[in-house]
Amino acid sequence: MSDAEPVVVPRKLPVIWILAALLLLCLAWFLFQLFFATSRIVVSKETTFITEPLGPDGLPDFSAYILARDGKGVTPENNAAVLIWQATWPGELDQKHWLLMAGALGMKAVPTGQDSLVTVFSKSVREQVAAELTERFSDELSDQAANELLTEEWQQRLRDELVYEAMGRPWTSEQMPALAKWAKANQKPLDMLVEAAARPKYFSPSPSLLDGKDDSLIGVLLPDIQRMRSAVRALQARAMWHLGEGRTAEAWADILACFRLARHTSRDSTLVGQLVAIAIDGMACRVTVTYLQHDGLGKEEAAQILVDLQGLPPASRMAYSLDQGERLMYIDIVLRMAQGEITPGEFGGDDGGPVAVMSMLAIDWNHVLREGNRWYDRIANAARLPTYAQRKQELANIDTDLSLLGSAATTPGAVLGSFVSRRRRSQMISDILLSLFLSSLDAITGAEDRAITTQRLTLVAAALAVYRARQGEYPESLDELSPAILPALPLDLYTEKPFIYKRKSDGGYLLYSVFQNGVDDGGTNMVGEIINGEWVKESPEDFDYNASDLVIRVPEPPFKFPQLPKELKP
Predict the structure, then answer these.
(1) Residues 127-166 pLDDT 10s
(2) Which of 30, 95, 230, 280 could form a disulfide with 262 if both were Cys (CB 3.0 to 4.6 A apart)?
(3) Any idea where the domains of the chain sit in the sequence?
(4) Helix (H) or strand (E) holding 510
């Protein structure tokens, strides 16, 4: 036994070393998933939404996609934008973009701008209107008051009030010589706008898509939007001048051009473009009602107006904008964040909040993109639902779910969990971004609902004008309009019932929708001009703007000059 070799018993590793090794492995995994577990962006319908054309980086080229999408089938001959730019050049277009825009539209040369429209709110026009007002009030003013009236504050207040009046009520050259002179001097660009409006296509690309700078879609320049609003205001003012002097055919040509320009504006895929289109259409609807009550309106003219209105497509395409405009902006922002091109501080506060912190860590940006597309699919589908009640309910559900997303994403538990799970971190980024991008959905779709209702009210007003032209008076009931004039009565969007109508003792009528509160407020409009179905000089001090309807009251008050302010009276 003494010759036997000693038995060596292996030493066991201390438990503490085993625990330390496991801890290191956990730490390595934690650091890996926190900082290094990145994934390449997958180009697919579910992530990037579009799969071509691709840029040098292998990702979708959104600028090229939008230009190809919006310019399909457009030629210089059928594109309304060509004539509109010629009539309003250069508008708000920066000089460095002149050649780019002219080239994109197929213009042979950059317009000179010599015959461009002078807007109705231009400095020169407003100064002439102010001078006429001062002259008009001269007999009522002391020398001191006259000097006060010439101050910029009073000039701006009174002249703008008068110009807005001229945009909504018939007026004559005798009443407003300065505006009549303006209308005559601007006949060429205004006629060009009418011609442009009748063209079937509209393609006016943003300079941001043409300059090759790869700017983010959310910051694209929109120089044509404000230009279009100014053009419509000018056409409105001329239409009311034509109407005031009995040129009804010319007046309707200008008004119809306003409707058509609204539809051209709605071809823009941004929400800004849709909201401006809605605003323009509302302006056109208001002056149409004014036109329809004109005593000189004949049977054939009234019938043609009704046909023209029935042939107009919807004024806005909000579902399209959410699907093809806002969605692409979201995807573009996410891709730029994934590549480090955009500072997360642009979202969620000055320092970016949780988005800024989390986006510095490893994120599955494909998951963020997929989640975004899922939500935009849901929202676009909701906006396309056939009835107001269905849209309202689904959008309310979406709004509730989005509110929960935003609040739940930043709870302490969610923040802590995001540090240990890339998926939870990616979901957190997605939830926060979507809650920011998809806010105010109700207001956005509500604007379109109001526009649809206003269009329907205007159509009924046109049918009432046809009836009056034939019968010499308005009907006792809307039922008398169908089927002789309208195949079916348009319904109030908010109730799916006929609009409320009353023939009035002054030879006119009251027609209204209960509007978004769904309550009959007696024909009181939301700006306080009409209370309980009657025009008032001033709205009550306790007027509740929420308790209102969408109202048409005929006849409207005639054109009037602003009243001399009490402060300036001797």
Answers:
(1) 888 888 777 777 666 555 555 555 566 667 778 889 999 9
(2) 280
(3) 1-36+343-439, 456-554
(4) strand 509-513
Distance between CA atoms of 459 and 353, rounded to whole angstroms?
A: 50
Give just the sign of the alpha carbon dihedral 288, 291, 293, 297.
negative
| C-alpha–C-alpha distance, residues 81 and 201, integer Å | 8
At 192 the pLDDT is 97
Which DSSP category does 79 fall into? B
Cα separation, 383 vs 398, whole angstroms = 11
How far is 28 from 36, CA to CA, in rounded Å?
11
Q: Which of 332, 330, 199 shows the shortest CA–CA distance to 271?
A: 330
What is the identity of the amino acid at 52?
E
- How far is residue 454 from each of residues 78, 312, 334, 351, 499, measured CA to CA in Å? 29, 13, 38, 43, 11
User: Which strands make up the sheet holding 550-554, listed edge to edge?
Assistant: 500-503, 509-513, 550-554
* Per-residue confidence (pLDDT) for residue 202, from 0 to 100: 97
Q: How long, in residues, is the chain?
A: 570
Q: Which residues have CB under 8 Å from 65's CB, separation 6+?
A: 50, 52, 53, 328
Whole-prediction pTM? 0.89
The DSSP annotation for 530-558 comes to EETTEE-SS--TT--TTS-BEEEEESPPP
Residue pLDDT, tens place only, 427-444? 888 888 888 888 778 888
Token pair recorded at residue 160? 């703008």
Dmax (CA) for the chain in angstroms is 140
DSSP 8-state code for residue 314: P
Place of tokens 């002219």: 102
Give me the helices (H) in 92-172, please.
98-105, 123-136, 143-149, 152-168
Condensed to tens digits (0 to 9), the pLDDT of residues 385-442 reads 999 999 999 999 998 888 877 665 555 555 555 555 667 778 888 888 888 888 778 8
